[in-house]
Design brief:
mainly alpha; 21 helices
């Protein structure tokens, strides 16, 4: 007998879209009730935030340690690190250029007035004051890399210091070539799997969280901010489409196969990436395509693909850079050259920090870019959660296609060095 209802339907794009539309109606026609729902939405948001640091502190060290324990050729490691960083920097730069050229977040005085006090007026003064504080944004950004006490960094949610600690801990752990070191890595991987299971459970409440958060937002500010958010959606899809095309042609050249055959052979990976919005769900199909259609060293492909999924989710760099410029313009914060450098670098760190994590969690990590610039995080997180399921498909396909090209390149280089 077939089940009449599966809980997985709550994560269907149609259910998410329905909850988003419903929240608009509820916020518009029942504003008092919508504001009463707001505490429940904030509770959902706090539950997600609560899981961010445990995930970062388990996923990143285990990923780096696993990479070192596999005894990679130092030349391959250097190429891998350089490639990951360069691709993320390039996409972050493109996101900044697009957001600046098309004036993302720039509103007329009338439009800003219609946004209401919840999103702008209560925060603009403090944002400007924070941005104009002691030292440049670049100085504040660099100072956040290290904390005198890692537990204080946990308490203050200093994600840059936590990320630095996680990477250093992972590298140190990877150099311990003993059974004890391997056991610690296995423990961290188990903890990460448990935290990811917890997040996946919380995500089932996403439709209800959207209704509570967005309806309250609409009741307070109207629809103006969501109209403006269409800039982020269109920009992400435009850049994502171009990046996917470039990745496909790069993969075609590396595999010496026509581009249309590459698309056909990797079609399952790309479709599952778009539908599931999960790189973890799609990359096994990429492994299958490499194994069945192309003569590459399968052991190396099996090693490189999971690493690229965890360490190179570069698509988020696009959204992070555009969102930061968007938010700065929205709060009337002028970004000078050093501020744009902060945006450029921070977007890369955000993309590294959310490796293997659902994008809705990544939204809370925008503090890496927002705090040095004095941009309030809370209101923007609500907006990003509203559009996350709209932009997630193209970001995941972008990650999947770029990761496949990276795997092909690393495998080719590794085979060349070993021959």
């Amino acid at each position: 007998m077939k089940k009449l209802f599966s809980i997985k339907i709550l994560l269907s794009p149609w259910v998410i879209l329905g909850s988003l539309v419903s929240s608009f109606f509820i916020g518009h026609y029942a504003p008092i009730f919508s504001l009463q729902l707001q505490p429940f939405g904030e509770l959902f948001l706090d539950l997600l935030k609560m899981c961010v640091i445990p995930i970062v502190i388990t996923a990143i060290p285990s990923g780096f340690a696993h990479m070192l324990m596999k005894k990679f050729d130092a030349r391959i490691l250097r190429r891998m690190a350089l490639m990951f960083v360069m691709v993320a920097l390039l996409l972050s730069f493109v996101g900044i250029v697009v957001a600046e050229v098309f004036h993302f977040g720039n509103l007329t005085a009338d439009a800003k007035q219609r946004l209401g006090q919840l999103l702008l007026q209560d925060h603009t003064a403090s944002a400007a004051a924070s941005h104009g504080g002691s030292g440049s944004a670049l100085t504040r950004f660099m100072s956040n890399f290290v904390s005198g006490n890692i537990f204080i960094a946990f308490v203050n949610n200093n994600m840059l210091a936590i990320l630095t600690f996680a990477i250093m801990f992972g590298l140190a752990l990877g150099l311990i070539c003993t059974q004890a070191g391997e056991q610690v890595v296995l423990t961290l991987q188990g903890l990460f799997a448990a935290f990811l299971k917890l997040i996946n459970g919380l995500i089932y409440f996403l439709p209800f969280g959207i209704i509570c958060l967005i309806s309250a937002q609409v009741a307070s500010t109207g629809f103006e901010v969501f109209k403006v958010a269409s800039q982020l959606i269109i920009g992400t899809y435009a850049i994502g489409t171009v990046a996917i095309v470039i990745a496909i042609f790069t993969l075609s050249r590396l595999l010496k196969s026509p581009w249309y055959r590459v698309i056909y052979h990797f079609r399952e990976m790309l479709i599952i990436a778009f539908v599931s919005q999960s790189s973890y769900a799609s990359f096994p199909l990429g492994l299958k395509a490499f194994e069945q259609k192309y003569r590459l060293n399968q052991d190396k492909v099996n090693l490189f693909f999971p690493l690229t999924v965890v360490l190179s989710p570069v698509g988020m760099a696009v959204l992070a850079s555009m969102t930061t410029v968007f938010a700065a313009n929205l709060y009337s914060i002028h970004l000078n050259l050093s501020d744009l450098v902060v945006v450029w670098l921070a977007a890369v760190f955000i993309s590294i920090a959310i490796g293997g994590v659902p994008a809705v969690i990544g939204m809370t990590m925008m503090s890496i870019a927002f705090h040095p610039l004095g941009i309030p995080l809370g209101p923007m997180v609500i907006l990003l959660i509203a559009i996350s399921n709209i932009v997630d498909p193209i970001i995941t396909v972008m990650n999947a296609s770029i990761n496949a090209a990276e795997v092909a390149y690393l495998t080719k280089v590794s085979e060349k060095h070993s021959s």
